[in-house]
Q: What sequence folds into this?
């Protein structure tokens, strides 16, 4: 086992907490990619405690060593667990954050402004009234827990470890001391964030919204829920404007949430002829257009399709908890059109994770950190069934549950899942088809706190 690379995805509910151990050198190279979840932190505490047991000793007595900590993006299901108490007695040698998190980055002013607007709107909305479940979920992405994680990642952890956090982007040199026969490439995000991910049209809409908010002055409070209109507008017109601002605020928050996914740090690890891709929550969105709002997969493909993404992977961390918009579709789903690109987004999946030829078995592996309870329809089981044709570590969870005499409907225990019939709508037709290993059902079927794969040298 000592000569195998280890990838472990902890079950933290809806979130990512991924540990990578690259063998070699004195005691290997140890990476933690994200540490977050929706809801309470019990599972996070358990995951970090388990992680600490596998880390080598640090330089100071009573400490352990983590060589690289990566926060892919600022959503709480990826950074909530970066709590000072959880990381006591852990020496962190390198801290990588998305370049989008750099408060001084000059090519992210538009995205930063969008984030500020969305945060103000959602926090004010959450504080002012009862919300529907979908709006409440959106508002939760802008809670104060993110502020705590931001402070820890940008200030406390770097200071306590005597290191400077690096805001990383595509093409940067890693500057790490890695084991022999190992390399690491940062494929996303691009440094010019506003150009590639915001786009001119959304930027113009945002500036118009900010102008209206400024014109209303402190009465609006940045939240579009003020009780008194300014003296220069009628009560009727003000109510119309309030409604419009609330609607725009929700729209900006939804768009900003998607953009944050697309600003995920994406890492390609190359080790002894093996290729492993960790994509955070990167999304795809149509075909690439320069200067427009683009998905991260579209930009990565435009930049790296002839280099780092030109051949098959040995491992894929399935993006965004199995969401349909986070894994590019196969070529078979490309719309029939004269304008269809022959080398566009629909060719990505079949290039990096091809279906094996008849008579051969897949050798690649993939895992997904997921939980049905928070979103619908995540994970997208049709997507997982397609991915299962391309990887070797699959399970037919319906058969396993049947052997254990577990009613599959009983798995989805929340009121929301039962009320909205998640099982019947999204799971029932696919439960008896093979799927890549997923953290939620491994916990149910095997009481496993993680999904673990070991990759031998090539």
A:
């Amino acid at each position: 086992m000592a000569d195998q690379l280890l990838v472990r995805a902890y079950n933290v509910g809806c979130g990512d907490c991924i540990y990578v151990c690259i063998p070699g050198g004195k005691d290997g190279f140890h990476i933690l990619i994200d540490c977050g979840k929706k809801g309470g932190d019990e599972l996070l505490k358990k995951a970090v405690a388990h992680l600490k047991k596998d880390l080598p000793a640090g330089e100071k007595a009573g400490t352990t060593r983590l060589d690289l900590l990566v926060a892919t993006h600022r959503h709480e299901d990826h950074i909530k667990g970066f709590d000072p108490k959880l990381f006591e007695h852990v020496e962190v040698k390198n801290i990588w954050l998305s370049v989008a998190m750099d408060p001084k980055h000059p090519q992210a002013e538009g995205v930063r402004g969008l984030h500020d607007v969305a945060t103000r709107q959602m926090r004010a909305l959450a504080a002012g009234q009862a919300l529907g479940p979908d709006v409440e979920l959106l508002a939760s992405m802008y809670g104060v827990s993110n502020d705590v994680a931001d402070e820890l990642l940008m200030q406390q952890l770097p200071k306590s470890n005597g290191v400077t956090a690096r805001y990383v982007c595509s093409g940067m040199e890693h500057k790490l001391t890695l084991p022999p026969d190992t390399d690491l490439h940062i494929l996303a995000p691009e440094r010019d964030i506003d150009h590639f991910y915001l786009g001119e049209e959304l930027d113009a809409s945002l500036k118009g919204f900010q102008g209206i908010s400024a014109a209303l002055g402190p009465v609006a409070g940045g939240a579009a829920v003020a009780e008194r209109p300014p003296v220069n507008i009628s009560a009727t017109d003000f109510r119309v404007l309030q409604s419009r601002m609330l609607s725009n605020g929700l729209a900006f928050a939804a768009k900003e949430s998607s953009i944050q996914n697309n600003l995920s740090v994406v890492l390609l690890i190359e080790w002894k002829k093996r290729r492993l891709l960790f994509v955070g929550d990167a999304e795809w969105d149509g075909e690439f257009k320069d200067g427009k709002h683009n998905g991260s997969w579209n930009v990565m493909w435009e930049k790296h399709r002839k280099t780092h993404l030109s051949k098959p992977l040995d491992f894929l961390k399935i993006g965004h908890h199995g969401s349909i918009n986070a894994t590019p579709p196969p070529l078979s789903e490309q719309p029939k059109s004269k304008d269809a690109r022959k080398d566009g987004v629909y060719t990505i999946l079949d290039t990096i994770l091809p279906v094996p030829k008849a008579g051969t078995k897949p050798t690649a592996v993939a895992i997904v950190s997921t939980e049905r309870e928070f979103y619908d329809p995540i994970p997208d089981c049709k997507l997982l069934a397609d991915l299962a044709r391309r990887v070797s570590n699959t399970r037919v969870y319906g058969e396993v549950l049947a052997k254990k005499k577990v009613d599959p409907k009983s798995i989805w225990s929340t009121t929301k899942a039962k009320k909205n019939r998640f099982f019947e709508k999204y799971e029932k037709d696919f439960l008896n088809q093979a799927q890549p290993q997923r953290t939620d059902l491994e916990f149910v079927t095997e009481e496993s706190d993680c999904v673990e794969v070991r990759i031998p040298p090539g």
